[in-house]
Amino acid sequence: MPNATTRVPLSILDLAWVGEGQTSAQALQATITLAIRAEEWGYHRFWVAEHHNMPGVASTSPPVLIAHLLARTSTIRVGSGGVMLPNHPPLVVAEQFAMLEALAPGRVDLGIGRAPGTDPVTAAALRRGHNHAAEDFPRDLDAVLAMLGDPTRHEPRPVKLRATPAATSTPQIWLLGSSGYSAQLAGMLGLPFSFAHHFSAHNTVGALELYRSHFRPSAVLDRPYTMVAQSVIVADTQEEAERQALPGRLVQLSLRTGRPRALPTPEEAARYPWTDAERELVASWPSRPAIGTPEKVRAELIELVESTGADELMVTTQVHGIEERLYSYELLAKAWT
Questions:
Q1: 135 by DSSP, 3-state: which?
Q2: pLDDT by residue (tens digit) across 216-225?
Q3: Which DSSP symbol is given to 273?
Q4: CB hemisphere CA count around 239 (13 angstroms)
Q5: Residues 46-92: tens digit of each pLDDT
Q6: Is the peptide bond before 247 cis (omega within 30 degrees of 0)?
Q7: Residue 23 CB-density burial (10 A; 0-12 exposed, 13-18 middle, 19+ buried)
Q8: Which portions of the chain are predicted below pLDDT 50?
Q9: DSSP for 93-116, written as a single string
Q10: Domains within the chain, CATH numbers bracketed
Q11: Which of 204, 172, 169, 173 is nearest to 186 (CA)?
């Protein structure tokens, strides 16, 4: 188990949040700025996530955004957190990431998820009538691995299709999950595993135990390797951090009640007339972000590393103001070193 006092690597998950009064173009420019600054601050990875039909999220197409981020940075690893495999033919995913790896060898991560990352209507539109269900995930994942040269094996297996352009290296492939299914599969394949603690905290320890107990050494890993994602908001004072957290709570409520929206301002969120039922719904959420001063958030993250044995941490910050989001990550980076 890692010694948290040695500070495991810290990475960022970004969704290109769109706030009220902001455009998607502004949100994407903020993500580009954040990636550049994250590299300067010493973050290890910068991942963007696939979501669709959500007014508050601009990271619809990770491969396109990843290509731009790779071009604007030079050392930080850039990848998907993740690409939702049921939405895409395996050949398309393999070719996109073979292209990215050829353009930036040794810096590309392909994080793969099993969920659609959207509502059922949008998922059906993405698949255009094709029955790519979550149950097909192991088969589709195997196809992606094979077309990328199957980095989990010491010797490539014979295949009819191989992703092009033919890169001299392979993207680092991760499985993502919020339950035990992908954890077991990642373990059996000998792949690194990233767990979504930020929205499924009650499953974290159990899923990581399943991953480690099912782990089989592969050509890419000789021992289990885990990353845990957590939501954080860091500010100079606890009061300011709590104020910035209000919009995120309102957005999560809107998602869970089928009314997706852009991130409101802290002032609008503070005026929202919460009902008793809505307060009970928020209280029942299984995950709690780490909110507060740099010292408080650092202590909570160290405790998370110690309780899970994570080899890496990935943090995500959901606040309205672009400058406030940058400042939160900067404060955390300084506190973590």
A1: helix
A2: 999 999 999 9
A3: -
A4: 0
A5: 999 999 889 999 999 999 999 999 999 999 999 999 999 999 999 99
A6: no
A7: exposed
A8: 1-2, 5
A9: HHHHHHHHHHHSTT-EEEEEESS-
A10: 4-239+289-336 (3.20.20.30)
A11: 173
